[in-house]
Amino acid sequence: MDDLVEFLVARIMDDNHAYAYVAGTLGGEALLDSHLPMLDLIEQLAHDYKAMDPSDSRSVGLAYALRVLGQSYAEHPAYQQEWRP
């Protein structure tokens, strides 16, 4: 699961860099309808999972949520099919 968390954080960083490029090129207004807030929330979930004690009853649900969210990057060459929920 740690591999999936690291993968998600790396993809979020890639997406954030892409949004920064768009903002720098086209101006901040281009990001008004972006997915930046969602990316921030997913990154927070990944960090929460890493900090969570495995015995926490919420860890199973959070792990499942991260697997579902990871599917949005299933076409990425580093995505592993074993991460599918």
Major beta sheet summary: none
| Gyration radius over CA | 14 Å
Helix content percent band: 55-70%
Count of helix runs? 3
Structural class: mainly alpha
Shape, principal axes of CA atoms: elongated
What distance separates the N and C termini?
11 Å
Give the helices and strands as they follow along the chain.
Answer: HHH
Strand content: under 5%
Give the uncertain stretches in residue-range form.
none
Strands, count: 0
Summarize model confidence as the mean pLDDT.
Answer: 90
Structure description:
This protein is an all-alpha fold and 85 residues long. 62% of the residues lie in helices and 0% in strands. It is built from 3 helices and no strands. Helix 1 packs antiparallel against helix 2, helix 1 crosses helix 3 (59-70) and helix 2 runs antiparallel to helix 3. The chain is elongated. The termini are close together. The model has no long low-confidence stretch (mean pLDDT 90).
